[in-house]
Amino acid sequence: MLKKYSYINFILLSFLLTSMTSCKDGMIGGNHVAYFGGEIENPKNNFVVFMKNDKVMDTFYLDKDNRFFHKFDSLTPGLYSFKHDPEYQYVFFDKNDSIMVRLNCNDFDNTLMFCGRGDEKNNFMMELFLKDIDLKNNMFDVYEKDEKVFSKYIDSSYQNTTKLYNKRKSFINWSEEFDEIAKANIELNYAYKKEVFPIVHEYKTGNSIKTKLPKSYYSYRNKIDVNKPNLLHYSPFINYMTSMLNNIVLTDCKGHLDDMSLENNIKKLQIADTLIKDKYVKNLVMNNVANMYLLSDQCSVNNGKFFNLYSKMVSDEKMKSKVMQTAENIKKLKTNNVLPNVTLLDVNKKQVKIKDLLSKKTIIYFWTKQAETHAIYSHKKVDELKAKYPDIQFIAINIHNSQEDWTKEIKAKNYTNSIELRATDFEELKEKWVINRVYRTIIINKNGTINDAFVSMFDVNFESNLK
């Protein structure tokens, strides 16, 4: 918690800013003056990056009390984001808003609070975000159920969230611009789960239901405009577009999910090229397709065909360069190569070299306190695997959490069947091991070389790799 005097100062500063912008609205309103500041406990670095449409607008440095403050002489109303590596969140500014943030980096999202003029709508947006995180954490088993059970579960959640939206809207009386963002948040997160259901269901159960869904199952697609300018840079939109493209292609594919990787991903590029008119979003969606393709197909001939088309369709040279660098990093993780070293610590804060631990067949998996359900289920899965395959070594690598939070979580949950390590630099992990999500698993051979760096222990066929 923040010290008492620090919290009081935070509230007083927020009140002062609100008072400043409440007076003389007519005089400063035309310039769209806005204020943004805050206080960060346990900061990971000494600055906050302020962005619009993923482009950096400004950088605010923390003072000796870990605070920052900035006045915008002219700030166009709309959706922005702020980043304190490795975390980020959205903030919406209306005309003359004065918004302060308060958070603890040890639990970024759950401690984030907005205060000042414009705080209510932003706190509601955080409320929606946290509800969606909780829903995802509670849906781990729901994806294994049949369509009726799944749809009933998320439809009920959607209705409850819509009721909350209507209640907050009538009380807060926010702008039409913010209302569009709030509604999109609810609709797109709901649609995303509908899109991934048939894919995840088959992935977890081995049972394909892609062609057995009711005709009305995808009716929500008709409500989503993929070319609304103010939604094109919003992550729920990008998530929806990526999953929707994936689902369309895999529904048309008659084989298993992994079949025809090259053909499927070329189709995704072609569909995206047809559906999306905005160049930036088209580039971003195609980049997501390219990155996911790289993780699924390691054939150099196929890669050449894919990137020949990708290069013609994507106009952003920086994005192309990043994708090609990812391709180079993935080459280093091919079968029989040695896993690159990354900075890892044990529970005693001692640095560990991964190569020194790989003297037997090993399974490496990842977890974070922020994805609690996955953390619990992955460790339970390892408990089951350890009982079946006692000669296999398991290494659990924590990402994002502080040393203190990580060690507390290990003790609280009694994680004992794995060697528990913590990655101190997620960017290094992303670059060297191409870890962009927590669900990856890496299999290492007895001689310490890579067996397969791109699998998941929750794949229905995962154990075939262990025999």
Could you explain how this protein is built, in words?
With 467 residues, this protein is α+β, with helices and mostly antiparallel strands. It has 4 domains: 4-117, Immunoglobulins (Immunoglobulin-like); 118-258; 260-331, no CATH class; 344-465, Glutaredoxin. It contains 14 helices and 15 strands. The chain has helices spanning 4-22, 25-28, 108-111, 119-138, 147-172, 176-205, 235-252, 261-275, 279-294, 300-313, 317-331, 372-388, 403-413, 426-432; strands at 34-41, 47-52, 55-61, 67-72, 78-84, 87-93, 98-104, 113-117, 344-345, 351-352, 362-367, 393-398, 419-423, 441-444, 450-455. The protein has a 7-stranded mixed sheet with strand order 10-9-13-12-11-14-15, covered by helices on one side. A hairpin with a 2-residue loop joins strand 2 (47-52) and strand 3. Helix 4 (119-138) runs parallel beside helix 6. It is globular and about 65 Å long. Residues 1-30 and 255-259 have low confidence and may be disordered. Residues 1-24 form the signal peptide. This is Thioredoxin domain-containing protein. Keywords: Signal. Residues 333-467 form the Thioredoxin domain. InterPro entries: Thioredoxin-like_fold (IPR012336), Thioredoxin-like_sf (IPR036249), Thioredoxin_domain (IPR013766).
